Amino acid sequence: MAAFVDRVVLHLTAGNGGHGCVSVHREKFKPLGGPDGGDGGDGGDITLVVDSQTTTLLDYHHAPHRSAENGQPGMGDHREGKNGQSLVLPVPDGTVVKDEQGNIVADLVGEGATYVAAAGGQGGLGNAALASVKRKAPGFALLGLPGESRDLTLEIKTVADVALVGFPSAGKSSLIAALSAARPKIADYPFTTLVPNLGVVQAGDVRFTVADVPGLIPGASEGRGLGLEFLRHVERCAALVHVLDCGSLESDRDPIADFEAIEAELEAYAVEPVFSQGGEGVVPLNERPRLIALNKTDLPEGAAMADMVRDELEGRGLRVFDISALAREGLDALKYAMAELVAEARSRVVEPVPAAPVEVPRRHRRRGERAEFTIRREERNLEPLFRVRGEKPERWVAQTDFQNDEAIGYLADRLQRAGVEDGLFKAGARPGDAVVIGDDVTGVVFDWEPTLSAGAELLAGPRGTDLRLDERTRATRAEKRAEQDARRAARAATRAEMEAERRSGLWTDTDDREG
Ligand SMILES: Nc1nc2c(ncn2[C@@H]2O[C@H](COP(=O)(O)OP(=O)(O)OP(=O)(O)O)[C@@H](O)[C@H]2O)c(=O)[nH]1
Ligand SMILES: [Mg+2]
């Protein structure tokens, strides 16, 4: 039997960004031709895309760990590292994506709907891109950022206009078979249907889809039976049809009791807020328009039972239809009543349920974001500790090669420019206090030395200058001009690159503007 999997936890790791390269242009008789280390490539993203050919999450059940390719490191001679290949994972229509906390992060409806589930890490800038007038030959490059690593839960929620609900063996699958071309499995044992079957129904000029949700039993909303798994599939439906079994021989059941039991389950089930069907707000399951189908009236006891309960149900304001799914009787009236509810729901919906691909924005890399951060004073072993949190400072730390003093100096510059240094002063930090940027797992700890970098600069000249570059005293004027032109061109290229980065929201600081 083909297994159906409609819920799976994926462990995703996007590609890491490649490191930037540190390199100095070499040519005969030109020992120091300027920095030419290229940028690292970006790591590949992992993207979920709705594909109508995909109907289950079975593949992911078998192989839940997926990763995308890393970006290649930059190389000398201004060669950029190759970007890592993105990984595209096809998912069924109606797939809902939840994060580790159970929040819905995407609701993928419609062929081609896309969600970047794990973003690849940004490649690091090479030393060529980091050069400026003050820092002519940076002896460092930025590290590539690690790709995002996420555990996401995927769930399928069937996309249908009408859901058939009822006890096991009430005849839901039989009804869908009678109304549409669908050929679901039908048998006289409970829980024959384990997966909603979808059928397309045509009534006059209204065409709509019907799903036979697997049998419900009391306690379903708390997970009894196959419970919650199935109620989930009802969420997107505009209308419900109660299929009530009038031919049941079980003495403790009758259509009214069944109806009330199912209603209680619908009421207890909390619809997740993302699925508003009628524009504003979420309609709870028990408030969706509903019809009653009294089934199995081809049986004498079925017809008798229908006669006994019809008035009672109609007395509650419900529209009741006597049918036989098996003998295909009474189906037209029911079908047109369903079509009516569907048409009504469609006219209410201001923005139709998206059929066109929905582009869900990438996490991170937001535009125009400011270098915001927080500084909190904590205590560790009776010593003060200052914790800096913020997307940018934490990213800068991740880009820093701590084996390289110049890279550390560059980080200090960035932190200072973003106001972290001032913030620490204001927060009461004193030289020598511990400062942590980030959390306890990936963050780094410094002993804060606010004046050290400034002092060091006074002694050694501006950081990032290579004094040897200025030693060429015997150049001809033509040589000088050519070199200047080349530098200017290189600088313009660097600027353009940095500007592009800035525009993409990455470098909104005023890095190197002074040149
Ligand atoms: N006599 C009679 N039997 C019916 C009718 N509708 C369904 N049945 C029978 O009832 C049994 C259950 O029918 P299904 O359509 O599989 O019921 P279901 O509601 O889909 O059941 P689950 O999938 O287990 O929830 C089958 O043996 C059907 O042949 C009907 O109108 N009249
Ligand atoms: Mg069934």
What does this structure look like?
- Residues 365-450 form the OCT domain.
- Residues 475-504 have a biased composition (Basic and acidic residues).
- Pfam families: DUF1967 (PF09269), GTP1_OBG (PF01018), MMR_HSR1 (PF01926).
- The protein folds into 3 domains: 7-156, GTP1/OBG domain (Spo0b-associated Gtp-binding Protein, Chain: A), CATH 2.70.210.12; 162-350, Rossmann fold; 373-469, GMP Synthetase, Chain A, domain 3.
- The chain has 12 helices and 19 strands.
- It has helices at residues 58-62, 127-130, 172-179, 227-234, 255-268, 300-315, 331-348, 391-398, 405-418, 420-426, 452-460, 477-503, and strands at residues 7-13, 46-50, 65-67, 87-91, 95-98, 104-108, 114-118, 149-156, 162-165, 197-203, 206-212, 239-245, 290-295, 320-322, 359-360, 374-380, 383-389, 434-437, 444-447.
- The longest helix has 27 residues, at 477-503.
- The chain is elongated and about 105 Å long.
- The N and C termini lie far apart (69 Å).
- Bound molecules: guanosine-5'-triphosphate and magnesium ion.
- The site of magnesium ion has 5 residues, from α3.
Topology:
Elements: E1 7-13, E2 46-50, H1 58-62, E3 65-67, E4 87-91, E5 95-98, E6 104-108, E7 114-118, H2 127-130, E8 149-156, E9 162-165, H3 172-179, E10 197-203, E11 206-212, H4 227-234, E12 239-245, H5 255-268, E13 290-295, H6 300-315, E14 320-322, H7 331-348, E15 359-360, E16 374-380, E17 383-389, H8 391-398, H9 405-418, H10 420-426, E18 434-437, E19 444-447, H11 452-460, H12 477-503
Parallel strand pairs: 1-3, 2-4, 7-15, 9-11, 9-12, 12-13, 13-14, 17-18
Antiparallel strand pairs: 1-8, 2-7, 5-6, 5-8, 10-11, 16-17, 18-19
